Amino acid sequence: AQSVTQLGSHVSVSEGALVLLRCNYSSSVPPYLFWYVQYPNQGLQLLLKYTTGATLVKGINGFEAEFKKSETSFHLTKPSAHMSDAAEYFCAVSGADYKLSFGAGTTVTVRA
Amino acid sequence: NAGVMQNPRHLVRRRGQEARLRCSPMKGHSHVYWYRQLPEEGLKFMVYLQKENIIDESGMPKERFSAEFPKEGPSILRIQQVVRGDSAAYFCASSPLQGPQETQYFGPGTRLLVL
Fold first, then answer.
1. Distance between alpha carbon B43 and the CA centroid of its chain, in Å?
2. Beta-carbon contacts of residue A36 (< 8 Å; ≥ 6 apart)
């Protein structure tokens, strides 16, 4: 079985500051890892995913995440926050099948 | 290429009524998944369907909930005799292929409120 823990339900950053969203996973098989973003009243949009290969994954809108097997982590970062980054972010894991297991989400607010 | 479409976007029902949620997958996608998001929680898997077949309904409540994906038309998630605890956002996703590494593309969701 797979599960995800997202540390921090709310994160507030200043515009231009580093965004760091934490995700730890548990999986009995090699995991596939995803980060999705949800803007208000919209569906989830894929930011990036890790399948195999390079552990540093680059996504859309300047986001990237690093898969660290030894730490069972897949933290999401962006060097410089923009006002348009205000949204809810979900980390998800899949293992042997198609079922995505999601974390509870982290809401990001960006201060001007 | 239009994304995943869901309607209605918002649905209000009184206890005991039926709710029907519709999902049209992206063009060329034959795999459909339904997830439910309760307040302050992440999405939880409910059911996986291909055309005319329910492949996995392990996340669906045993009673009152059913899903279908007919040969023609959208996938339907049906909730009979709704209760207040059914209030949630219901998301549909689709993918062109099936597998743990495949990206699932999500629709905007249907927000169900049961009075």
1. 11
2. A44, A45, A46, A47, A89, A90, A92, B106
Alpha carbon of A101 to those of A61, B69, B105: distances in Å? 24, 23, 15
Question: What is the tens place of the pLDDT at every residue in A6-29?
Answer: 999 999 999 999 999 999 999 888
A63 pLDDT above the threshold of 90? yes
Q: What is the per-residue DSSP string for B62-93?
A: SSSEEEE--SSS-EEEEE-S--GGG-EEEEEE
Question: What is the least distance, in Å, from the CA of A44 to any CA of chain B?
Answer: 5
| Residues lower than pLDDT 70 in chain B | 1
B46: nearest CA in chain A? A99
d(CA A2, CA A96): 9
pLDDT tens digits, A23-57: 999 988 889 999 999 998 788 999 999 998 889 99
Chain A residues with CB inside 8 Å of B98's CB?
A: 98
Taking only residues 21 to 50 of chain B, the set having a beta carbon closer than 8 angstroms to any beta carbon of chain A reads 31, 33, 35, 40-45, 48
